[in-house]
Amino acid sequence: MTDLVTYERVGRTARIRFDDGKVNVMSPAMLQDLHDAFDRAAEERVVVVLSGRPNIFSAGFDLKVIRGPSADDLHSMLKLGAELALKILAFPTPVITLVEGSAFPMGAFLILASDWRIGAEGGWKIGLNEVQIGIPVPRFGLEVARQRLQPAYFSRTAMLGEMFAPAEALKAGFIDQLVAPPGLAAATETAIAALEAAHPPSHTTTKRRARAGAIAAMRAAIDEDITLAESQRAISSRAA
Fold it and tell me: Would the N or C end of the chain have less CB density within 10 A of its end CB?
């Protein structure tokens, strides 16, 4: 890992924090570091606490890569992002995600894939805003959102690009708990204690049974949609 992602082991918990010092774009380098951190957590069989920057969780995929000339870079970034969301959705141990700032795709997809999401009150927003910036929501992203969001909110954010403030995000299903910022640390420790108490094999088996449909749909979407040929086609059509 580089300095984009830090991994801190505390007892039976790993705290994974990503911070690029700016707006936490999900570049290929950031995504690879997050993969490495989650692979380490899987090997150590620990509860994960994932967090971004205090003012912004993530600005989503790196638009410089999306709008750039390299099909290889675009394919690599999309593949890493989709596989990371799938990895978290099927992760063998519990994943807690802390949301202290705005989250755009790809960041919102990681939150939606997590087991327990704690938001801190504030002026941030979350949603799938791709259609507002001229990008169709990727199919893997629709699948991870569909299994977590309330149907009406799923339609509003996916098809209209609507972003939601914290209280509305709680109603929508983007987060499970909303606390005042001073209470975030205590809420996190409470969640850790509760999830560490779960029987690990039972948690893993039940999670994968409950999410089997979403996992299979995401796997198919990644394999069918995120190919180098598709990235080449996207860049060629943009230049035409």
Answer: C
